[in-house]
Write a structure and sequence with these properties.
Strand content: under 5%
Low-confidence stretches: none
Distance between the termini: 50 Å
Number of domains: 1
Structural class: mainly alpha
Order of helices and strands: HHHHH
Shape: globular
């Protein structure tokens, strides 16, 4: 029997769907850890320690060659680390008080707007993906869908 080849788009779609599934799980698990230990900020620190060790393990398998090029990179690219820390710490602090669904709802809306702006202006080296009427309609429908999921 022949091997079925999966397209690059299908592989990327599956990986990103799994990443999306992970976001509410991350929020729930880390918020629970923060509540159990009494500090969402310590929970965030533990999360980053585990994430760091995981990244080191992957690099141990795939190689550390690119590490030598890190110091040459523009400083603004390291803002990503600040943004991920802000996300993890804010979701860990707020999700237990606001609800995971409400917190993720707001995150999704922010992601929709931010992604559309980044794509439209090809910011930070992103591929240009201009805003069209069809794309705006799609983003509006996605926003409405996210809103509908939060109606009680």
């Amino acid at each position: 029997m022949g091997r079925v080849q999966m397209s690059e788009t299908a592989r990327y779609t599956i990986v990103m769907l799994l990443a999306g599934i992970g976001v509410p799980l991350l929020a729930t698990l880390n918020a629970s850890l923060g509540a159990r230990i009494g500090s969402p900020f310590v929970a965030g620190t533990v999360l980053f320690a585990v994430a760091f060790l995981s990244a080191v393990a992957v690099n141990a398998i795939t190689g550390f060659d690119a590490l030598a090029r890190v110091p040459e990179q523009p400083g603004h690219l390291f803002l990503a680390g600040v943004l991920v820390a802000f996300y993890v710490l804010s979701i860990t602090l707020i999700a237990p008080r606001f609800g995971v669904g409400n917190a993720i709802f707001c995150v999704l809306l922010g992601q929709l707007v931010s992604a559309a702006v980044i794509d439209h202006f090809a910011l930070f080296g992103a591929r240009l993906y201009p805003m069209t009427l069809i794309r705006a309609a799609g983003l509006t429908l996605m926003t409405l869908g996210v809103l509908l999921t939060q109606r009680g």
